[in-house]
Write a structure and sequence with these properties.
The protein contains 12 helices and 9 strands. The chain has about 300 residues and is an alpha/beta fold. The chain has a single domain, classed as UDP-N-acetylmuramoyl-L-alanine:D-glutamate ligase, CATH 3.40.1190. A 9-stranded mixed beta sheet has the order 3-2-1-4-5-6-7-8-9, sandwiched between helices. The longest helix has 23 residues, at about 255-275. The model is unreliable at about 1-10 (pLDDT under 50).
């Protein structure tokens, strides 16, 4: 990596927007979040697996992945430290329609849920997202296909979000366009749309981009970490895992979103120092997460 951006990375001393609480000597895995990830489908098993792996490396205590049976063995094979739950699948290996109260009952076992990576747009996925929006218990982080499905749910988006409780939504510009109708090329317009949709709700918006912006009711925060090498498949799946893990460790959705975006970008900067921009891939972010997380502990 060369040029002015390399020099910027060498000179800057980025400060995270919040830090992790100290871990007590008698801590156990249940103290650091029981996380559930919902996603994956045949051909897209890696997405939800990377979210789960990123969550583990970000400090989550217990991680479970609920995924269609067709890809469960593939998802389980990525890492031995998370558990898996098989979900009914359709003939194409995507999530099939589940009972109307399925996720309401399952969610009772978890502190936070991450949903969307690799989920597809099947009828089962649409029903799953409808159930996620209506949950009254754990915080939820919705990304990727969960956002695309949310954009297709009939009715007014603002009304849906008004009763959704604690949500973090992490759209990239094209997903934000599908959700709001505001062009992906209109960054200011998308920020204004998120500001409007966040009013008087518990929804935190993470508008991914350069730079990423986090928005909640009356609050706006702009990130100062990250680089162009992170424009690679799977990068957003890693961010989903980080934010979900931080909520599981007790951060508010607002703090977890800001710290998660900062850590994600900082991890990308550390990875770029080793691999450069062109060769950086999303698993490099997971490999460098421990260094970025240490910086949260050191401040």
């Amino acid at each position: 990596m060369t040029g002015s951006f390399q020099r910027l990375i060498e000179l800057m001393d980025p400060v995270p927007p919040a830090t992790l609480s100290r871990r007590e000597l008698d801590s156990h895995k249940g103290n650091f979040g029981r996380l559930l990830f919902v996603g994956g489908s045949r051909g897209m098993a890696g997405s939800i697996a990377m979210s789960a792996m990123a969550a583990l490396r970000s400090g989550a205590g217990l991680v479970t992945v609920a995924t269609p049976s067709a890809c469960l063995d593939t998802v389980a094979g990525y890492h031995p430290a998370y558990m898996t739950i098989p979900l009914k699948d359709d003939k194409e290996g995507r999530l099939a329609t589940l009972p109307a109260n399925f996720f309401a009952e399952l969610s009772l076992q978890y502190d936070v849920i991450g949903c969307g990576p690799g989920l597809s747009d099947s009828e089962g996925a649409q029903e799953a997202v409808r159930q996620m929006i209506s949950l009254s218990g754990p915080s939820r982080v919705l990304d990727a296909d969960a956002l695309n499905v949310l954009a297709r749910i009939p009715g007014d988006l603002n009304s849906s979000l008004d009763t959704a409780g604690a949500l973090v939504l992490t759209p990239h510009p094209k997903e934000m366009e599908r959700l709001t109708g505001v062009s992906s090329g209109d960054r200011r317009g998308q920020i204004r749309a998120a500001e409007f949709l966040s009013q008087s709700t518990q929804v935190v918006w993470v508008l991914k981009g350069a730079p990423s912006v986090v928005i909640a009711d009356g609050l706006l925060w702009t990130n100062d970490t990250g680089n162009p090498g992170m424009a690679t498949a799977g990068s957003g799946d890693v961010l989903t895992g980080i934010i979900t893990a931080l909520i599981g460790q007790g951060m508010s959705p607002w703090d977890a979103a800001r710290v998660g975006v900062w850590v994600h970008g900082r991890t990308g900067d550390l990875a770029a120092q080793r691999h450069g921009y062109a060769s950086l891939i999303s698993t490099d972010l997971i490999d460098h997460l421990s260094r970025a997380m240490r910086e949260l502990e050191d401040f």
